[in-house]
Amino acid sequence: MLLLLCSCRFIRSFPVVQQLATLTETELMEHFLVEWWPDSLGPLPTGSEAVALMRLVVQVQQSPAAQPKFVEAFHSLSDDDRATLATEMAMTGIDGQTYTASPTNGGGPAFLVYYSPAFLRQSVSNALAGLRVLAVVYRAARELFPLSADHVGCVTVYIDQLKAEADIESLCATAGIGNL
Question: 124 and 67 in contact (C-beta within 8 Å)?
Answer without folding.
Answer: no
